[in-house]
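Write out the 3D structure for:
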Amino acid sequence: MNFISDSEIKGNNGINLAPMIDFLFLMLMFFACLAVSRIATKDTDIDLVEGKHSSDPSLTAMDNEKIINISINEDGEYKWITEIRDYVMASSEAIAQELSLQYEKGILPEDRLKTKVLLKIDKNAKWEPILKAIFAIRDAGFTVHPVYVPEELPDPK
C-alpha cells in the first residue's frame, strides 16, 4: 500500500507551456499597441519651412497658389496675417472655419493642395496651441507648413 501515487514519484515529463503562451500574448499586445500609436502620432504632410525673408522662394506663391499666413505667439493666440492688417482668431477651430469659408466663397484655389498655410510660430510658444492649429488646418483639408526663422549666430572676432 503506497501513500504516494506512482505519477507523483515519477514527476511530469511534459513541458509547461502556460508561461510561453502568456509571453507570446504580451508580445502580441505590445506590438499591436506600438502599431496603433505609430499610426495615430505620425505627422504626415507636414513640412518644416525655413523662412529667411519674405522674398524666400519657399514662402512665395506659384501660379494658382495662395499663401495664408497664421502666427502663434507665446501666449497661444492665433493671428491671421494679411497685407492690410492682422486678424485675431479666437481658436484653432476658427482658423479651420475661416479656411473653409474662404474656400466655399472661391477666394482660395479649387484644389486645396494649392493653398499653403504657413504657420509662423513664436520661439516661446507652447506645444498645445501649435498642435491644435496644425490638426485643425489638416482636418479642414489644407496643407500646413510650420515656418521657423533660424537664429543668427554672432560673428566670431
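The domain at 49-148 is CATH 3.30.420.270 (Nucleotidyltransferase; domain 5).
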